[in-house]
Amino acid sequence: MSVSAEPRVPEVLFVCVHNAGRSQMAAALLDHHAAGRVRVRSAGSAPADTINPAVVDAMAELGLDLTKEHPKALTGDTVEAADVVITMGCGDACPVFPGKRYLDWQLPDPAGRPVAEVRPIRDEIDRRVRALLAELTPDAS
Prior knowledge:
It is a single chain. This protein is an alpha/beta fold. The protein has a domain at 16-108: Rossmann fold (3-Layer(aba) Sandwich), CATH 3.40.50. The protein is 35% helix and 13% strand. The protein has a 4-stranded parallel β-sheet. Helix 1 (22-34) packs across helix 4 and helix 2 packs across helix 4 (115-136).
């Protein structure tokens, strides 16, 4: 008797030091565009208390609500569970596990910037997230 295996859903982890800006935007955008085809997490090595308000505002402009999100601590288990680990240009120390794909997206830090300066960062993250999604789910329409 043959058992049909469900296709494995790839998991992506976005990492930034404070998990309050870039990694939160990337996770929300990938989760939105993937619509369940990819599992998405974000974390930071020194999580902030709250998400950057300008980031929340910039994402709200796209209809994505980050008000219920919060910065999360990076753990070895979180990295180990991921297929792709993306650091967000903040020089973060991330545990390295064999068989994982590691990328570093060099992006400006939105900390302390007004929403007008966060928008271009958000838009660049969105472009990269869409390209990553196309790689991870090539058969999706």
